[in-house]
Amino acid sequence: MIREEIVHINGIPKKIIIFLHGYLDDADSIKERLLGDLLTVDNCAIHIPQSPFRCEVDNHFRQWYSMYRFDPDYKRKSAPDMQTFVSYYNKMTLGLAETYGYLQPYIDQTLAEYSLEYKDLFLCGFSQGAMSAIYTSLMLPQQIGGLVSLSGIIAGYEYLQKNAQSTPYTLLINGEKDKLLRTETISFTAQKLRDIGCKVETYLLKDAEHQLTSQSITQVINFIKKIPK
User: Fold this and answer.
1) Over the chain (229 residues), what is each successive 10-residue block's mean pLDDT?
2) pLDDT the model gives residue 36
3) Contact indicator for 64, 99 with CB cutoff of 8 Å
4) pTM of the model
5) What is the rounded distance in angstroms from the CA atom of residue 157 to the CA atom of residue 192?
6) Going by C-beta distance under 8 Å and a sequence separation of 6 or more, which residues neighbour residue 19?
7) Helix (H, G, I), strand (E, B) or coil at 123
8) What SS3 string covers the chain?
9) CB 27 within 8 A of CB 52
10) Which residues pair with 44 in a beta bridge?
11) Which of 11, 62, 186, 226 has its CA 20 to 30 A from that of 54?
12) Do the beta carbons of residue 120 and residue 15 sit within 8 Å?
């Protein structure tokens, strides 16, 4: 279960942003990189949960699920084509399902604290946190206010196409020079989400790699602010 989190509140919360950190990352790092910017969203509670699992490659950091379990030799990075590249992420369905098992009660508890509903929630994530946010938001029993994926990909999409319960309004942000995710990733993810029924916006960050930037956070804030309560 998730027992650690960073929480900041601006005004009287009418919206909640839950932001999931990446692999080889943690809640403190996310706080340092973007909390100040996110606090410009009025009447909003910002929760940055800490994954309960130490990262398998460096126990100073965290992971939502094991990556080595599904791709021990990191073959996805050198995959010869998009189909092969995506096949490695499709293997991660079990890890994502396990992540959903402890994110979903955390989300329910967090909403209950403020007497808010799923429609008031914006679920965001970076990298592995983005994959977890995509999977979780599609599997939640009710529609959330919005989903934001930063440097992510839809993983386990074959399972999601058959079992998704929700179709959130989505923003996908990827770096133009991301060396971990292929250039086609953002269009692939957008199309798969649209096939499921989601309304999707995309934003490609010029000259950006696999990282959080001030430009990407500006896009996140604009996306959240424009969706009415």
Assistant:
1) 94 97 96 87 96 96 96 92 96 97 98 98 98 98 97 96 97 95 95 98 93 91 85
2) 84
3) yes
4) 0.96
5) 7
6) 30, 34, 38, 46, 47, 48, 124, 125, 126, 129
7) strand
8) CCCEEEEEEECCCCEEEEEECCCCECHHHHHHHHHHHHCCCCCEEEEEEECCEECCCCCCCEECCCCCCCCCCCHHHHCCCHHHHHHHHHCCHHHHHHHHHHHHHHHHHHHHHCCCCHHHEEEEEECHHHHHHHHHHHHCCCCCCEEEEECCCCCCHHHHHHHCCCCCCEEEEEECCCCCCCCCHHHHHHHHHHHHCCCEEEEEECCCCCCCCHHHHHHHHHHHHHCCC
9) no
10) 10, 15
11) 186
12) yes
Do 212 and 34 form a contact (C-beta atoms < 8 A)?
yes
Question: How far is residue 198 CA from its own chain's centroid?
Answer: 15
pLDDT confidence of residue 33: 85
Distance CA 139, CA 181 (A): 24
Residue with tokens 């909390």: 35
The per-residue pLDDT for 229 is 60
The two structure tokens encoding residue 5: 């989190």
Give the position of tokens 């599997």: 139
